[in-house]
Amino acid sequence: MATMHAGWYPDPWNIGPFRWWDGHAWTAHVGGVAEKKPRLPMWLSVPVVLCGLPMILISLALAYSAPAAIPLGFVPLLIVGPVLWWLDRVEPEPLSSRVHAVLWGGTVAAFLSSIVNTLVAIGSSEVIAAVVSAPLIEEATKALGIYWALRRKELDGVMDGVVYAGWTALGFAIVEDFLYFATAAEQDQLLAVFILRALLTPFAHPLFTAWTGIAIGLAVSKRKPVLPYALVGYALAVGCHAAWNGSLALSDSMGDGAIAAIAALLFVVLFLAVGIALISFRRKEQARFTEMVPFLASRYGLTPGEVQVFSAWRPMLKIRRGLPKSQRRHFDGVHAALARLALLHHNPPIDPVSEELLAAQLLEARSAPST
Predict the structure, then answer these.
(1) I want to staple 19 with a disulfide (CB 3.0 to 4.6 A). Which of 227, 228, 272, 301 is the partner?
(2) Are 24 and 299 in contact (CB under 8 A)?
(3) Does residue 370 have a pLDDT over 90?
């Protein structure tokens, strides 16, 4: 094995040089097989590229016919994005992975769903497409975005499932809003549609798809087969999505705004319930991480300075905020690697290969070029 040179942490942390875990040097070779260099950057994938080309053309056409639709479509990003970022602070996911999730939702999920929904609307009716086809195909294609993160071994638990579900659904909602706002502009209803979709219900798609993410994350954390859990989560996502679309369709056909108001109220109640549950779960993960730091220190050779930094949550975030952006990325890499190891050891039995990979990630995150 090739030996790696010891690096040093940035001065603001006041942390000394690392030492090898269990006296071994780690490389990118695990089990004698070298990691293949990806053909595309991590924020891209072949499906995103293939489906992204037609979606770019469609977006350009919408921008030409209704220029306001595109900037207004990004408003939910400003509302939902900070919430997803906050949920992700316990175990920060790589920025490239989050970007890929957004792109997956806005390209693969949006493109495939638009094709299927259009065909169903032509073959039956727009109501069938909205109430039956849309929930089935949209939640399936968004679930594939979560699966892609799982395939890349980036999804380690329930909170990861929620985060990747949220970013994927947000990407889908942004592109879907382009179309809704462009259509509403042609009908002189842009303000009303914008208020409903961007301001009152920006969390709709993330909330639907969160059920699939929770289920997949739960299966991973329990080390159970993913497919049965994923199907249950998918069924819940489809049910919530169909109920929401059905209430809007019924309100529109009957001309009764009370139906939509009741549905919106129930949506808000469901959103608050899920939000409270996620906040509680996040606090438990946060406490588990800080409690595990001393154990991680003894097992992986953390320095006293690192233990001091990562064993107290609020001071850790305060230190992070005081770092330059370049050092924040370094900090987040160490934090994420430690969080994944904490989760691994919290759910025994421990897979030696997974531990080796995560320990290598920790070493790589802690290292810095020698000076």
Answers:
(1) 301
(2) no
(3) no
